[in-house]
Amino acid sequence: GGFGDLFDLIEQAFGGGFPDWFTADRPSHGADLQYELTIALADVVTGTDTDLEITRQTECQRCEGTGAEPGTRPETCRACGGTGNVTEYRRTILGVMTTRRPCPECGGAGTVVRTPCSECSGTGVVEATQAVHIHVPPGINDGQGIVIPGQGDMPAGGGIPGDLHVRVRVQPHEVLHRRDQSLVMQLDVSFTQAALGDRVTVPTIEGEAEITIPPGTQTNDTVHLRGQGLPPLRGGARGDQIVILRVVTPTDLDDEQRRLLLELAARRGETIDPGDADKSLFDRLRDAFGS
Ligand SMILES: [Zn+2]
Ligand SMILES: [Zn+2]
């Protein structure tokens, strides 16, 4: 977390070594935990609340985190007198140098457990699986992280627990694709629908809606459903759903449909020569017999 970064910065400032006054009371930090949570795209609209089963190191209830069997107490370390550090003196040409390092007897804790707790073997922590409430805000992006402070591992011997990092994965929708706050979909329309206009029902993130395909629609024309997109993460109005229209040319005309289209073309003053390859068997037979 943020404090860890601060310590790193200070450590760099002091050339890699903490001054004694700084390390003396620095509590140990537990490990951060990484979890993943998958939500539906529809959950991005409203946000969602869920409980995650988290397995983490928690304070041992039997010894209340001391590591000592109930009825006993951790004793002050005799090697370091409870300071957790040992000081060594070295004589050099520059004078007497003193260095401090963590006490090897107690590992820097300042106390030793003579009778370890039977539940946690003296570590003061046990593994436990607990439900942790996760609030996912509306507008969250795929891959975005949520940090729940203090829900990581409790360090052995006590201290400050780490944080729980939850990476949110947003499941792709079958039809709707996210583009910032917009939800984009492609809709095929027939060439007659495109020419004449139509009203059709399309899926939305929360159900369905009727849209109007205007007469004279071209491929890549769009229809906007205002406010049917996604909300911004910081709060505010929802984006739009954008329906991109694609005009589909028929490939399966029968003879009657072909005749009607040729008639339409003639009425529109278009001169069309489909060529032999596009003629039906009926047309070719008719041409052959000159009927
Ligand atoms: Zn215990
Ligand atoms: Zn010690």
UniProtKB/TrEMBL annotation:
Residue span(s) of domain CR-type: 47-129
Pfam families: DnaJ_C, DnaJ_CXXCXGXG
Record keywords, A-Z: Chaperone, Metal-binding, Repeat, Zinc, Zinc-finger
Biological processes annotated in GO: protein refolding
Gene Ontology MF, one: unfolded protein binding
Segment forming the signal sequence: none
GO cellular component, one term: cytoplasm
Record's protein name: CR-type domain-containing protein
Organism, as annotated: marine sediment metagenome
